[in-house]
Amino acid sequence: MDETLRNSVKAMIKETFEGPPMPVKGSWFTNPEPNSGIFGVLEESNCDEASLSIHGTTLAAHTDHIRYHMWGTNGILNTGKQPKMEWEKSWEIHAVDERQWAQIQKELHNEYQVFLQSFDAIEEHEVLANVVIPSLTHSAYHLGAIRQMLKIIKEK
Length: 156
Hints:
Blueprint (H helix, E strand, L loop, with lengths): L2 H16 L19 H6 L3 H5 L7 H21 L18 H24 L3 H31 L1
Organism: Metasolibacillus meyeri
Protein name: DinB family protein
C-alpha cells in the first residue's frame, strides 16, 4: 500500500481517538488542542454525565457503540469476515456507575489498540477503502455527536 495514503489515514484515525499530535501544528478535523479526540473528550465526563439522556441516548451508549463497531471492524480485519452484529444491543446502555463507565472506556481503548495493530498489517487498498475508511468516518461522526451532547450536558 502507498505509504503516503497509509500515513494519512493512520494520522486521521489517531486524531479521531487521541486528538491532534502534540505539539499541535494543526489538525484534520478536531479542535487543535489537547484532549480533543474521543478519549480526551470522554475523560472530561463522569458517570452521571455519561448516564444523562440527550435526545434519547447517552454518552455511555455512544461510547459503547463505538467500541462495538471497532470490535466488528477488528473482526473483519483479523478474519476477513464480519462477525454477527446485533447493532441494537450496542445502544442498550442507559445508566452507568463509575466502575462501569471506566470499564466501557477501557474496552474502547483496547479495541482501538487492536485496530491500530491490525491497521499496520493491511496490505491491500481494498481493505483500506472498504473497511478502515468507513470505520474512521463512523468514529469521527460519533466524536462530533459526543461533543454536541457534552455541550448540552455542561449547560445544565
